[in-house]
Design brief:
This protein has 201 residues and is mostly helical. The protein has seven helices and two strands.
């Protein structure tokens, strides 16, 4: 009986880890298909396909759903600083690519710091898998930006404009910010990257 339960648990753990890998495998498949697609004079760079970002957004939504049902276990001891997600399109369009990239990279840095901080305060291993996936996805987005020849920018706490941030006091709020930031400023930056615009034209 004990052996059977152990086997069921290991099968379930294996299935869970398999499910976590699916979005990454799909993203890799998109990249390979774009590279090998025949008949196009100048195929789109695979990383310009925003469906890759959609998978990161879906994983952030999964994490948000997990935090929604988690109560005391997901309490935040201290408020966490996160980026503002609203976009004033008039102001955004007046910024050059470097300024937009810095704003996005600063926001990703803040989200990474907040999610990492949340992880240290939560003991539930099931929730850890969502938090770890979110941290990995933020790192992957950084790689996407580098692939588009967007210069790296690592902010320092003293160099962050406090006017462009606010604080959240729950895990649920944190992931709502994460989703909105990916859907807003990150998507805008990727969609308007010069290398993607050149490939479309």
């Amino acid at each position: 009986m004990g052996n059977r339960r152990g086997n069921e648990r290991s099968v379930r753990d294996y299935a869970d880890s398999d499910m976590e890998m699916m979005p990454r495998l799909f993203a890799l498949l998109l990249i390979v298909l774009e590279w090998t697609r025949p008949g196009l004079p100048s195929p789109l760079r695979p990383i310009c396909d925003l469906r890759v970002l959609d998978h990161f957004i879906k994983e952030a939504r999964d994490a948000e759903a997990a935090m929604r049902v988690c109560k005391d276990e997901c309490s935040v001891g201290v408020s966490l600083r996160v980026p503002l997600t609203r976009v004033d399109f008039g102001v955004w369009e007046k910024k050059n690519m470097e300024e937009q990239a810095r704003e996005v990279q600063t926001g990703l840095w803040l989200l990474n710091k907040a999610i990492s901080s949340l992880r240290t305060s939560i003991s539930n291993s099931a929730l850890h898998s969502h938090l770890d996936a979110s941290i990995r996805n933020i790192a992957s987005i950084g790689q996407v930006l580098r692939s588009l020849s967007i210069q790296d920018y690592v902010p320092t706490p003293g160099g962050i404009d406090i006017q462009e941030t606010w604080r959240v006091s729950s895990a649920l709020e944190l992931f709502q910010v994460h989703i909105n930031f990916l859907r807003g400023k990150v998507r805008l930056l990727l969609a308007n990257a010069p290398v993607c615009q050149q490939d479309v034209s």
